[in-house]
Amino acid sequence: MSTGVQIRPGQAAGAMTGDRVEVRLERRLRHGFAGTVLKIVEASPEPVLARFVPHGKGGMAHPLAGYDPPLQVGPGGIGGAGPGDLVQAEVLGVGKSGQRRARVIAVLGMEDAPGSEVRLVIRKFGLPVDFSPGACREASALPDRVTAAEPEGRVDLRELPFVTIDGADAKDFDDAVAVERKEEGYRLRVAIADVAHYVRPGSPIDREAVERGTSVYFPGRCLPMLPEALSNGICSLRPDEDRLAMVVDMECDKDGNLRRSDVQAAVIRSCKRLTYQEVQRHFDAGDKDEPDAPQLDLMLELSRKRIALRQQRGSLDLDLPEYRVSVDDAGRPVALGRAGRLPAHRLIEEFMLLANQAVAERLLKKGVPYLHRAHDPPPPEKLSALQELAEHCGLSPRFTPEKVRPAELQKLLSDSASSPYAPLLHQATLRAMAQAVYRVEKGGHFALALAQYCHFTSPIRRYPDLLVHRALKYSIGLQEKTPARDELMTQGEELSRLERRAQGAEREVVGMLQCRFLLDHIGLVAPARIISVQSFGFFVALEDPPVEGLVPVASLRDDYYVFEEESLRLIGYNQRKCYGVGDEVSVKLRRVDVFRRQVDFEVLEE
């Protein structure tokens, strides 16, 4: 079992992020050890993202990650970089002074230029941006509308009242839904864009999609998996336009239980494009005279029953804040906000979950290999740490780490709902979770409490969904062959990696843009709530603007504060003043580091 070793900057012996090092363990911490680097075993071969500062005839490249030491850049290695430019530097070796030498291999522009955060992250994560000439030629040759011959052999569902419900800024519409009441319950049809009809295995567009694995979404910008002619064009289920789709036709009883499902290759015609906000306004106002009111009300009714069933089977529902950044046309952050989960969002979530589940069960019964969306139970050692934390918070979690059920974790979260420790426990539960992956072997989805599950509903933006579409079309005789299990296994591992790459890139850009926004608010005073306490300080969350940051223990100058692990508090040695989870404090924004995504506050004395 691996464990972390905390190395302070003065004990790193010149080591940089990515180096393999030999360390001496000095003392045990709550989750790992503290130690000192003895020597660098192998220097990282990875290029370094840095801030360039001229020095003499050359310059210094100050790494953006962690607290890595600066790199010396000789006169011939500047590569056109100027003061304050963000650069990518290649490490050449170690000079006589022990300082690493480097040369600039790419200049990414001024650090304060709009869009620098996205450019930096694209370079750091190696994200593909432009499509190959072959993919562009293939995309431009595609029709911009369904041809007269394409609907042949498909079920004609153009008369059904399909609607799309997405975010206000969405352009690629993967899914459309239609619901009708039946005597025995409900009939739900979920139509998903038939991307597999246009993207054939091994084609230039397919090879590009494999390289990306998923679309990557940044505030104000998207790096799509497919060229725009498909993602926003012929594959997008735009209103009043014929589109090819794979439709999951499901019948549910009066309690919302799935009783029957079928899959059809169809041609549909979405009758309306709705946004989450529009649908929510209807639910809030309850206007029965709106043309869409009967179907929307029926959708809400069915989705609530599906949510209740999911809760009954013990599905895990983590209530974590999702931060949003609004940017202007140049990419500068202009507002921060929180993304709430409205009933309109949950409605679509539930219908997509049900369609994914129905497709997974069908493929399993047919014996067709496909990529499961697998989510394993949390590792026992992480659950033991969560259990210990919950006990520190005054709760009595009743689960066995080796045989935990999602319902038991959900009960822990429900029991803490009115506690000031709720945000801390939600975050800790998330950190305890295993990473969901794509794999061929049958594996359940722990968080959803499902025996089998797959991703089918977003083939425009996720390659695993496109693979599931191909497997599904093979199962109903519309595709001649499907990848072998060994090939799918390899693809699943790579697609899981690409998903993590995209998630990491998106998270870093949002974090940097939050910090960029806060640069103009240094000195801001606001009320905050303590959400976590550590030996080095405590983290606080603000309501307006909605951000989180650290109050370093070194900034608490009125006393010497000691971390009391049992009560998760910092306690003043002399005056016994305490800072604990849930406490309200008044803080002042004192420091922001955009590229390290660090926000520091100080507490204002009462």
Summarize this structure as a short list of keywords or feature phrases.
five-stranded mixed beta sheet, OB fold (Dihydrolipoamide Acetyltransferase, E2P), 606 residues, 13 helices, alpha+beta, five-stranded mixed barrel
How is this fold's topology laid out?
Blueprint: E1 5-7, E2 20-29, E3 32-42, E4 48-55, E5 58-63, E6 71-73, E7 85-94, E8 100-110, H1 116-125, H2 133-140, E9 155-156, E10 163-166, E11 175-182, E12 185-193, H3 195-198, H4 204-212, E13 216-218, E14 221-223, H5 228-234, E15 242-253, E16 258-269, E17 272-275, H6 276-285, H7 293-312, E18 323-327, E19 333-338, H8 343-366, E20 372-374, H9 380-392, H10 406-415, H11 422-432, E21 437-439, H12 463-475, H13 485-518, E22 525-534, E23 537-542, E24 548-552, E25 561-564, E26 569-572, E27 578-580, E28 584-593, E29 598-603
Parallel strand pairs: 1-3, 6-8, 9-16, 10-17
Antiparallel strand pairs: 2-3, 4-5, 4-7, 5-6, 7-8, 11-12, 12-15, 13-14, 15-16, 18-19, 20-21, 22-23, 22-28, 23-24, 25-26, 26-27, 28-29
Structure characterization notes:
The chain has 606 residues and is an alpha+beta fold. The chain has five domains: 5-42, no CATH class; 48-111, Beta Barrel (OB fold (Dihydrolipoamide Acetyltransferase, E2P)); 133-365, no CATH class; 380-433, no CATH class; 522-603, Nucleic acid-binding proteins (OB fold (Dihydrolipoamide Acetyltransferase, E2P)), CATH 2.40.50. Helix content is 29%, strand content 30%. The protein is built from 13 helices and 29 strands. The strands form nine sheets. Strands 4-5-6-8-7 form a five-stranded mixed β-barrel. Helix 7 crosses helix 8. The radius of gyration is 27 Å and the shape is globular. The two termini are 46 Å apart. The mean pLDDT is 91.
